[in-house]
Amino acid sequence: MASKSRRFSLASLRANFEPPDLGRVDLNRRARLLHTILIFLLGFTFILGFIYWLLVPGWLGRFFIFLAIGIELLSLFILKSGRLYRAGAILVYMLWVVLMLIVLLSDGIRGPAVLGHVLLILMGGLLISTRFAAVLTALTLLGNYAALLLELNDGLIYANQQLTLPATWTFQSAFFLLALGLVVMLGRSIRESLDVALDNAQGLKEHVAELRLAQAQLEMSDRNLRRREAILDTLRITSEKLFRGRSLGDSIQEVLKDLGEATDVDRVYIFENHVSETGDLLASQRYEWVAKGVEAQIDNPELQSFSYAQAGFSRWGNLLRKNEIVKGRVKEFPSSEHDLLSSRGILSILVVPIFVGDEWWGFMGFDETQKEREWSPAEEDALLGAGGLLGGAIERRRAEQALNRSEARYLAILQDQFDMICRYHPDGRLIFANEAYTRFFGMDPSKIQEMNVWSQVPKDGAEALKAKIASLTPSQPVAISQSYNTRADDEPRWIEWTERGVFDEQGQLFEIQSVGRDIHEEVLLRKQLEENLIQMENQAMSDPLTGLLNRRAIMEHAEAEWQRAQRERRPLSLVVMDVDRLKEINDTFGHLVGDRALTQLADLMRTGMRRYDWVGRWGGDEFLLVLPGTGLQKARDVAERLRVRFKQNKIQLKADQEIELHVSLGVASQANIDQASGTLQNLLARADQALYKAKQAGRDKVEVKE
Q1: How far apart are CA 1 and CA 59, in angstroms?
Q2: Is the sign of the CA dihedral 186, 188, 189, 193 positive or negative?
Q3: 693, 676 in Cβ contact below 8 A?
Q4: Which long-range contacts (CB under 8 A, 24 or more apart) does 276-283 make?
Q5: Is CATH 1.10.1740.10 what the domain over 417-525 is classified as, yes or no?
Q6: Is residue 532's pLDDT more than 80?
Q7: 128 CB contacts (<8 Å, ≥6 apart)?
Q8: Boundaries of CATH 3.30.450.40 in the chain?
């Protein structure tokens, strides 16, 4: 324990003699220099005092030595408290006063104290300022002149205590050594300052270059973002045309035109895959749109039954089959591809695959013939989505054709009496049932007359069937319904039942003929198609990384909530959230960890919000929360709760390493919304200003904008 106490005391003592941290590089450099000079002076003064004690009789010199030590300790104490300039001024001024008193009282202008004045003027100029050194020089000249007059008139009070010649030489030598030590320290400090200045200048040049590059990238990102927004707008319209249009061919042609104008390319086209008799994979052009003045290729026979392998485009087949894109400048493509593409005037190209289910159906291409072009990742993702929509539309049209064929087959089966057909009395007693009916329900054909129809319907379907029978009239003798019937092998199936009433001359119902058609696959297929359509529409409005609403979708919801708040005179709050130092996470741990951070935040927001709140990815590392019917204070509480929750849910990298997530949030609220109180854009701008305030305040904070 004693050993630990000694080590603690030595560490504390060493810490007390360390220079203070003043928060700035230049101030810290000056503080270290002054601290070194003080330590050096203290040692020098102690040695000087020892020399005085040995060589100089009398008390005056010893008094001034102790006074100088006290001044140096006082300056060191003031420096430790962080007052750099005051510590330097006190050190130089008070030591100058001590030396001037020695000159005026005992040594005169021929004593070694004059050398001390020279060193103090030098220190004052380097540590404090040139003006300070000039003032000291003027005071020194005046003081030395006064000492000259006193010495000429024998007015030095303690002239009898002047130094002897050996003592004078000793003290002069000490001052020379002090000067050498100061020159070494100050020279090193000046060289460090010059090196820092050169580094700063170089850093400034690099920063300017980075800013210019960032500006160019920002302009490119803005242009790419506008193109991506245009593509997403087109995709929204595309889904309407593809899934609600009557003619698939006409719809695809309109879609190609919309995509070509949105992407600002010269040519858009679609190729469909098929297999030759020898098993070779071929592709044929089916659709095309070209900009004004661009030569069309739809009638080019070389682009029909085009062989990937024989034409040297096997690379395309390998990439597209794996749902990857083909893109780039044509001049950088392999020669087998370059020759064919350049002969058609193509400078840059982007090709996305089209999948129908799990089958690679073909591809859609975008040509630039006027200029070379770089495609942004955002554009690539959006156009991949367009290929997905086309594949979904083709798959749906195939399903519709299959459904039509299925209906035709069912009609043929009905004509051949393969549908389930039975006849029964209004009270349910069976009269007749064909083989399909008896096979479905597992009935004994010989005992049909002993059975009734109620035993074949679901438990909760008897009353519905009775109501259906009661609805039959001579003018409306047919009623159709669907029910979930259990087959003889206990497999439930959707069956469409058509009841036709047979009436006598008086209009009395005496028999019902029922035809049952198995529509199980049709119902499931229709349900799957509807789910696929909803899923595709949702994908066009969601962020691919986080699954949250994308920028366009969240703005549409924010606008809708704004209009609702205006109608209902309710408050509305917005929260803009920014992930702190996401770039540092990406740079340190990689973009995959950065993506994990964004997806984890999205999951926490998705589970931590109210069911009627909206949250979306605003862009990059920013998110937007729309809080309907929420005032400013409650919105701030929601933001603070999210901030704390994000901070508590850390990203685990390894067993012993994790990242703590920090976010900054800006909150703004609008109460009693009306036309005179502002717009949604104003409210969004206020929330963004609050976010900026939070980041300026040190990040990991929630700020509000009144």
Answers
A1: 46
A2: positive
A3: no
A4: 276/305, 276/307, 280/307, 280/309, 280/310, 281/307, 281/308, 281/309, 281/317, 282/306, 282/307, 282/308, 283/308, 283/362, 283/363
A5: no
A6: no
A7: 85, 88, 89, 92
A8: 245-384
Q: Which residues, 6+ apart, have CB-to-CB distance to 689 below 8 Å?
A: 666, 668, 705
Instruction: Report the first-to-last Cα separation within the chain, whole angstroms.
Output: 58
Which residue type does 25 have?
A: V
Cβ proximity of 664 and 696 under 8 Å: no
Q: How many CB atoms lie within 10 A of CB 131?
A: 10
Q: Are 389 and 238 in contact (CB under 8 A)?
A: yes
Whose CA is closest to 318, among 310, 327, 326?
326
Question: How far is CA 362 from its chain centroid?
Answer: 33
In this predicted structure, the answer to whether residue 411 has a pLDDT above a threshold of 50 is no
Region 260-270: mean pLDDT is 88
Q: How far apart are CA 703 and CA 706, in angstroms?
A: 10
Model confidence at 416: pLDDT above 60:
no
Encoded tokens for 124: 């004052």
Distance CA 42, CA 19 (A): 15
Other CB atoms closer than 10 Å to residue 205's CB: what's the count? 10
- How far is the C-alpha of 3 from the C-alpha of 121, rounded, in Å? 47
On whether the CB atoms of residues 70 and 91 are closer than 8 A, the answer is no
Half-sphere exposure of residue 465: CA atoms within 13 angstroms, side-chain side: 27
Question: Which residues make up the CATH 3.30.450.20 domain(s) of the chain?
Answer: 417-525
Q: Which residue is listed with tokens 């502002």? A: 678
- Domain 543-705: which CATH class? alpha beta
Rg (Cα) of the chain, in Å, rounded? 46
Taking a C-beta distance cutoff of 8 angstroms, is the pair 372, 329 a contact? yes
Rounded Cα gap, residues 565 and 503, in angstroms = 60
Residue whose pair of structure tokens reads 């035709």 in the numeric block: 408
What's the token pair of residue 460?
């909760």
Query: How confident is the model at residue 376, as a pLDDT?
Result: 79
Q: 252-256, 296-300, 456-460, 652-656: which range is least confident on average?
A: 652-656
Multiple choice CATH, 245-384, 3.40.190.170, 3.40.50.300, 3.30.450.40, 3.40.50.2000? 3.30.450.40
Of 435, 682, 451, nearest to 558 (Cα)? 682
Q: What are the start-end ranges of the E strands in 474-607?
A: 478-486, 492-503, 509-518, 572-579
User: Taking the model in full, what pTM does it have?
Assistant: 0.35
